[in-house]
Every structure is written in structure tokens, then in C-alpha cells.
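Quality-control log, excerpt.
Job 1 of 2 completed; input and output follow.
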Amino acid sequence: MVARRHHFLPQCYLKGFSQPKKRGKTHQVIVFDRDGKKFTSNILNLAVEHDFNRVEIEGQPADVFEQALAKFEGELGPALTRILQAGNLRNAADKAVVLNFIGLISIRNPRHRETFRKFNEEVMQSIMELSTATKERWEGQMAQARAAGYLKGTKNISYEDMRDFVKKKE
């Protein structure tokens, strides 16, 4: 079965801030939201988004990245436990795991993803603006794409239609 609930903060990390409930089977934390409201939540329901790590790669399951992260988190949980018990980062292997974790959480979160998506969108919009700046440029680009075999089986789009599409940022 393909995993659909993807945590952008691992449960093994969140567990360090939690209190066990029901004989240790679930772990809960007190959450403070942006409006100042306070509530208790199970860590299963925190820092999670539906299909956050989903990928579309031919021949691979949609959760292949999530599966790889699960392997990493299998190393992270015990490393965090050993670090807490030792009270230091002297174990080089545990230190490497924690540094990798810091790198992952710095880039693998919804806000960073949105910033990156917006940047890509702006770059693509600029490229399309340049590509459709003149009719001659657009037709030259299309001729090159056809010659390279990229447009087989697609219909021709007029310069005017594409320019209108780009201007409307569709």
C-alpha cells in the first residue's frame, strides 16, 4: 500500500517533545497555533501533509521518496536517543545523521517548497515572455523544437494564442 500521509518533521523527532499516552502507544504534545490557541495533539497529526513527498517517476511507486526517508528516519531515531543519553555529539556517525537531518528539515518543509515553487514559476514566466517576445523568435523556437522531435503528435499553436496565454499567466 502506498503511504499518503507524509510527515515533513519525522515522528521520531517530534517524540522527543511529547508525553506518552495510553501505555506509551501514542505520543502527544501541546501545540500553540499562530492565533495563540493552545491544544493537545497526537504527533501522528503534526507536521503532516497528504502526498507531500509524492513523486511521479516511471517504474517507481509514488511513495519511493517517502520510503527512502523512512529508512533515514530509522537511523535518526536511535541516533537521537544515543545523543540524548550521552549528552554530547562525540559519536561521528550520530553527528553525521543529525547534520543530515538538519539539512533535510531546512529545505523539506511546506514554506520552503512554496518559495521554491514560486521562484520556478517566475523563471518559467520570464522564459515564456522572452520566447514569445516576437513572432519571429517564437516561430524559430518552434522550428527548432520540431526539428529535434519534441513536438511530434502535437498541434501547432499560433503565436498570437501563445502570446495571449503568456500574458494572462496561464
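Job 2 of 2 completed; input and output follow.
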Amino acid sequence: MRAADVMTSEVITVGEDASVQDAARLMAEHGISAVPVVDRERRVVGMVSEGDLLHRAETGTERRRSWWLEMMSSTNQLAGEYVRSHSGSVKDVMTRDVVSVTEETAVGDIAILLETNRIKRVPVLRDGRLVGIVSRANLVRALAMTINERPSGAEADDRAIRDRLLAELKAQKWAEVSPANITVKDGVVHLWSSYYSDQEKRALVVAAESIPGVRGVEDHMRPVAAYLL
């Protein structure tokens, strides 16, 4: 099952020149917790979520720090927080580094993206332009629709590959990989885990390549330090 099979096609968006009040009004009226920010060609330039609007001067919820924390904070950080809590422009408060997928992205991979990035939705792009959005709710509905389906031959093979790889890694003392960080689609193993060393990363790839039936390995792994920044 792919993003195109489960995504919401009619996406509520705001323009990059919209006001913060416009974004908040749309979210309240449609009962959604975030909206993509798009340019005139429907290219996603950011995302505005409830979290981005949590600390606002209008509601008296702007971030306040104790004097000693304020002394430890850089002027750039303090200035940035002021802009985000006082600016009336969406472009100043939106999250710019937006995780996205294509219509062909497997729903299993989307679930991992949502979990590892601690987000609730991802925009779906075609040639860089917004065509849909997949949320956690979309994935839950997809599960409800397939709960009684038996796996096809290809899906059964993918499941067998994944089970063999998990068993192999479980037997290795160096391997500390969560099952949620390994997905298999059409014989291709996708590795999403973090790693402590290049040797450990290479060992994970080699273990995947050694499983019978594996057609390829896609490395999405990041060093542990990347999660600590």
C-alpha cells in the first residue's frame, strides 16, 4: 500500500504571505492541527502546526525564561523566539525543514518517518508540488480497511525476509535495532535505525544483504549524534 492509496487529496493550505491569524482560523474551522505553507506553484515551503503557535504574545503565552536561563541563551536564540511569538506573518513562525514523501512511498515507510521525526503528518509531493497529505489518522484508516486481508505472495515474501533479518540481528551482540526500524518492500530492505559507528552501520547493511531473497538495501540510517543535536 502506497501514499497515493491512503492520502487526503483535498489539502487545506495557506500561502507563504498569509497571516498567523489566517492560519489559526483555518486550523480551527477545519479541526486540523497543522497546515502546509505553499508558494504560488504549490511547492511546500513550510508547515504551520499547533506547536508553532503555542507561544504567542496575543494570548500571553510567549516563552518566558528565568534570568539565569536568559543569560545562558544566545542573542540569536532570544531574537528568534521573539520573532516567532510576535510576528504576524506565517513565514516567520512556520517550520521550514518539512519531511515529505512521494505518491509511491510505502505506508510502512511513512509510519517510520512519522515516528522517528515525531510528527503527525507528511505532505505528498509530485514533481515537487503538493498533491496530498498523509496523517496518522490516514494510516489508522488504512489498517482498518486491511485488517481482514491475507498477505499476497509478494507481501508474504517481504514478511519472511524481515523475520529472517530480525532473527539474524537478534543473535548478534553488536546489533541493537528496533523492529520498527526495519521495513521490506518488494524484496528491498529499508534500514531506518541510528548507529554508533561506521562499522555497525556497514554490518547492518551486510546482514540485510545476506538474507535470501533480498533484492537491495536502502540505507536511511543516521548517526546517533544526529538525534542529540
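Post-run check on job 2. The longest strand covers residues 129-135.
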